[in-house]
Amino acid sequence: MANTEGPEPPRTRRNSNKNILTRIRHGQSSGRAISRATEISEALLQERDQQAQWHGIPVLLQRLYDSSHLNSDLSQIHSIIKEVSPFLSMEAMSFVTEDRRTVQKSTCPNTYTFDLFGGIDLLVEILMRPTLTTQMNVPKMSDDLVKDCLSVLYNCCICMEGVTKSLASRDDFVMFLFTLMSNKKTFLQTATLIEDILGVRKEMIQLEDIPNLPSLVQSFNQQQLANFCRILSVTISEPDMGNDDKHTLLAKNAQQRANPCPSHSEVNQVALLNIPGFIERLCKLATRKVSEASGPSSLLLELQDWYTWLDNALVLDALMQMATEDAEQSSTESSDESSLATSPLRHRLPQSMKIVHEIMYKVEVLYVLCVLLIGRQRNQVHKMLAEFKLIPGLNNLFDKLIWRKQTSSHVLHGQNQNCDCSPEISFKIQFLRLLQSFSDHHENKYLLLNAQELNELSAISLKASIPEVEAFVNTDRNLICDGKKGLLTRLLSVMKKEPAESSFRFWQARAVESFLRGATSYADQVFLLKRGLLEHILFSIIDSGCKSRDVLQSYFDLLGELMKFNIDAFKRFNKYVNTEEKFQMFMTQINSSLVDSNMLVRCIILSLDRFESQIEDVSVVEVLSECSLLSYMARVENRQAFLFRLVNIINVQILTQENVSCLNTSLVVLMLARRRDKLAFCLNALREKEYAEKYPGCLLNNLHNLLRFWQRHYLNKDKDSTCLENSSCISFTYWKETVSVLLDSDPTSLCAIASYIDEAYMDLGRDFLEV
């Protein structure tokens, strides 16, 4: 700042420019002195402009301010905005196409200057001014003026994250933007800006606060509704907490205790479900067909370079809208797909672009449906998705759109890793996630089959003399898949053709596994065994050379559900794994990461226990004696070795949704030992292991704390307890009783952990459950 108490020293022009910027920055941060260009004389700004390379932006902003009063000439305002806009759009386009992620003021100098001299605040004032006055007969802003204002703000957000955060902090402006979405001509520009803003907000908005939300959504055509789903995805998903420590079950439980009320995202989900016709329209969007037209498929390859900046349907829509306006057809916009397909614009667009455009829509729609499927209102959503025939519709799209071709190349990424890939890959993965959510522990899973396949399940049950499961009997055949194959069978076909390291294999296996999860169904297992699924899984684990831990984990889990309690599956296993070399390779894969394979280990142990109680059956005895896998697990020392490792690789502080299964598998081993009066033997073996490894008390203290956590975590979670009971065929009462017996404080109890820890090493009093 200049010295106000005496004469200023001589200054160079460079110092003068710096002084102006310094004074503005100080004014904006302190709220005192200069805070915008309008407080500096135009003569001074013009004098400094050329050397500072401001391109006249401060002067334009000053003129814009002078022209932007309530009853000003809006055409003059529009003219100035058009003059400044190219400087900003040029930088935004350069930023996006060059994929820059770290922006300094030198990277986008025009945007920096525009923001520094108050351009952002001025545009917000111009946009909102008509809503902030009670004066009548205020000049109405044209749609073109509104669009240009929004485009300038969006371009600034692209180049400077600080601008986005500043806009996001203004609740009044965010709500105002939603009101602009009711105008079809400003919808796209508004939607792109809202999406950017909501992505950086610290607090999630409440959808019920949006003025007239139901009528707003109902006013959208199908194209707008699909784009609105991009915005909704931010409002109905739990925010990413970033820090891995916050993803632990300990932290989540503490957060739930501190905030027992429904989260903002859960409240927003309810708000959406209360909008009449919302789910039905999403189902229509998800299942509508792409209008087919002639066009060389090679054009899709030409579009791949566009993906660096055509990263969402909104941008592509903007291009289509510009082309429409050039053809003077914007007034004839129709939400009907057939009308859109026959327009001159659609004929001029490459067919591959139409397909990618439709795929982009469906990615957003499927994501919203998927989130709603796993929310608290799951049963309500399930009923509506079945009623509106989402699954049959997706089945009809499978060959022509969803899996119309094998993608030539794509990166492998894990289930929790952000996907930054092509629209087709994103679409396939989102489709698979939806199938997983739809089938998981829900009776509607049989809607994935057609009539012939349902009849096949009935025949399997009849031949095995077992009753059909209740969910199967209750399936409404008016809502199932039609055609030659159901959706599950189509999925199996493409799954077996996927390359070993394909990113799709993880999600394919998860989707098929979800069909088997819940109460074990022999007919479901045989249905999949007859289609060669077990042999495919074993080939992938043993012979394919697959190194991906995510894929292997999903295949281990699927194999466990496929083989559990099924004697035929173990016969098939033994037939495929017919050499010692193959068996050792299989066990090496299991032992390489027990966190990934423990669900399969649990399945083998549970199945062995069941089979050993059926020794009157000759075929069971035959398999018990011949199957290398069952023989291996029948040896007590091998089961104990798994128990040692399972207890040793987890502790309360690192438990997550991914590895808590290790705790439950450990407990299964202990429960089965208790059934056979071998619990004391197991605990003593753990004690001996501790002393042999020279860390007495470590394993048993850890097990004790894990079980204390188990009590607190599961006894208040109905869903989790049901899953445990269904997956193990052990009553949850027995789970609870076994934990109580193990945690008994009576030092004379031979089944209490405390009895096996020497007093010198006992560390049971510390509260590991607090965070």
UniProtKB/TrEMBL annotation:
InterPro entries: TRPC4AP. It comes from the Eukaryota. Signal peptide: none annotated. GO terms for biological process: ubiquitin-dependent protein catabolic process. One of its GO terms (molecular function) is phosphatase binding. One of its GO terms (cellular component) is Cul4A-RING E3 ubiquitin ligase complex. This is Short transient receptor potential channel 4-associated protein-like isoform X1. It comes from Salvelinus namaycush (Lake trout). The gene is LOC120059330.
